[in-house]
Here is the input.
Amino acid sequence: MLRRRMYKEQLNLTSPEPPVQLHQEASWVQFHLGINRHSLYPRSSPIVSKLLRDMRDFPTISADYSQDEKALLGACDCSQIVKPSGVHLKLVLRFSDFGKAMFKPMRQQRDEETPEDFFYFIDFQRHNAEIAAFHLDRILDFRRVPPTVGRLVNITKEILEVTRNEILQSVFFVSPASNVCFFAKCPYMCKTEYAVCGNPHLLEGSLSAFLPSLNLAPRLSVPNPWIRSYSLAGREEWEVNPLYCATVKQLYPHGSSDRLLNIIDMAIFDFLTGNMDRHHYEMFTRFGDDGFLIHLDNARGFGRHSHDEVSILAPLFQCCRIKRKTLLHLQLLAQAEYRLSDVMRESLLEDPLSPVLTEPHLLALDRRLQTVLRTVQDCIEAHGEQSVVADGPVGQWAPDSSRANATS
Here is the structure.
């Protein structure tokens, strides 16, 4: 009852005659209530499939800037979680069931690779990378990426005509080719040449389900110990000190919890996608130091299939530790009958925007997986399996039916 009342308060539905009745069976409500200390959703969750369908099909009732853009415009204090950059356009869409999703529009064609001379922090954000990251995370059995689906959005009817934000309305225009376009209203890259355009109204994009609000499920934003330099010439300590992991272990809570193993999981995931832009990670505070890391913001993955950025694996090869559960799953996906590229290809067929990835990106997953396994094997040969492969504390891999969740 407490959770239901809090959700109603969040939606302004506490008046005697609410305009719309909040339905407890709504897929986004069930998704929120199903978050537990191990993952965002259970392994075989029908709710996730329903949520993906709802985000794909439900009409939008409002559109607004994301917290990033609002922070840049001074409209809110989003410092708890958001680290605004203002470089890339994303919008919050609300649906007829009051669920919310983050919309990231198509900025780059699937067969385009990130130019070699681009720094990772000026790379495009790719809508298909967000979709592919969700599927990969689910295949790896992490279940730490919010459910994400592709959708062909009519930006006139489903964004412009439903938004009440005058600033957002003001950045829409019709291009010389008679396509409807819009751009970000922010301090950086806010010019019409950086706009996204429909054809003439329809535009591909990814929709990622929102997590519970911070009032319901507080989250912590933590700097990644292996954060990269965001200057043109800077280098971080981990890039020059091969013994850097020993320093990290001395920092609370990395030496006395599963935090470090979870960071290594995240590094393996990012290496497979090619995402170099993991400067922070988020956690639900309710689950304490051993809680899982939420794998948010994956749009800078899948940029270059022809290059494997091995430095992303620094947490793995500097610490030489990995969860046994993670290793066994990776070894399974390296077998011919469960080849990672084949499983991904089949999974991505479910998405409305299929094909989500080009064949070279799928094949790159197999190549990178072999690199991860070779790195683990090198660690085992150097330090012994007992030192490298961590079984985790008793109960760490409890069944998904755990009653503890983020919003209780």
User: Anything to note?
Assistant: Confidence is low (pLDDT under 50) at residues 1-8, 10-18, 69-87, 393-403. The radius of gyration is 21 Å. The first strand starts at residue 60 and ends at 65. The CA atoms of residues 261 and 302 lie 24 Å apart.
